[in-house]
Structures are given as C-alpha cells and as structure tokens.
Design brief:
With 125 residues, this protein is of the alpha+beta class. Helices cover 18% and strands 50% of the residues. The protein contains 1 helix and 9 strands. A 9-stranded antiparallel sheet has the order 4-3-2-1-9-8-7-6-5, with no helix packed on it. β2 and β3 form a beta hairpin.
C-alpha cells in the first residue's frame, strides 16, 4: 500500500512539472511588441506589449500600463487575460512566425482582431 501511494504521488508530481513547463512563455517570444486592435474601444486600438515569462504588460497611447492577470503559452498559442477599467478581456493569439502574432480579444461587449509585430530595437553607438 505504501509503495502504491509513493508512485501515485511521484506520478502526480511529474505530470504537474510537465504541465508547468509546457505553459511557460517561450523565451524567443519575450520582449517588446507593437499591437493594433482596430475594433477595440477608442484609446485602446494600438500600443505596445511586453511579453514576459508568466505575464504580459500592455501599454496604450495614453501611456497607461496594464499587467495580465495570467498568461499561458501552449505550442503556437499565447492566451492571457487582462482587466481594463473593470472589464475582463481574454486574448487568444496564434504565433504566425518569430515576428508576427495574431488573434482576437474578447470582452463582454464585443471582440476585435489583434495584430502583434515584434518591435525593432535600435542600438545607437
């Protein structure tokens, strides 16, 4: 009986570990991105996004930043939830290539397409 319990606990731990690893954001997608959401409410149609391990930070033209409630990556998808002015918005995005991500944002009153483009970092010497 004790060996069965030990194997059950060990098996559950291994499954949990693999689940955690698979949901982490791939490092090649971390960093700064620009975004456009043409049908979003006024003031939130474009801005920048910083993808970090475990979170996404969105900044709009008005320089107001919002950190995601949670963020997950699985295969070619990035899914995260953010709260803006008491409205919860779910982002479901698909990675197109290393520089482009697209998908949609859904909230109680509607939805919009979302387009992300990897920001170009300029280094001045």
């Amino acid at each position: 009986m004790k060996i069965r319990t030990i194997f059950t606990i060990a098996g559950a731990f291994v499954l949990l570990l693999f689940s955690f690893v698979s949901l982490q954001i791939d490092k090649k997608y971390t960093g700064k991105w620009t975004f456009e959401a043409p049908d979003a409410p006024e003031g939130s149609t474009k801005g920048s996004i910083e993808i970090r391990p475990g979170s996404v930070i969105m900044t709009f033209d008005e320089a107001v930043a919002f950190t995601s409630n949670w963020a997950k990556m699985k295969k070619d998808s990035l899914i995260y939830e953010t709260t803006f002015d008491m409205a919860t918005v779910l982002f479901s995005l698909r990675i197109i290539d290393d520089d482009n991500i697209k998908g949609k944002a859904v909230w109680k009153e509607g939805e919009t397409s979302v387009y992300l483009k990897k920001a170009v970092v300029t280094v001045m010497l």
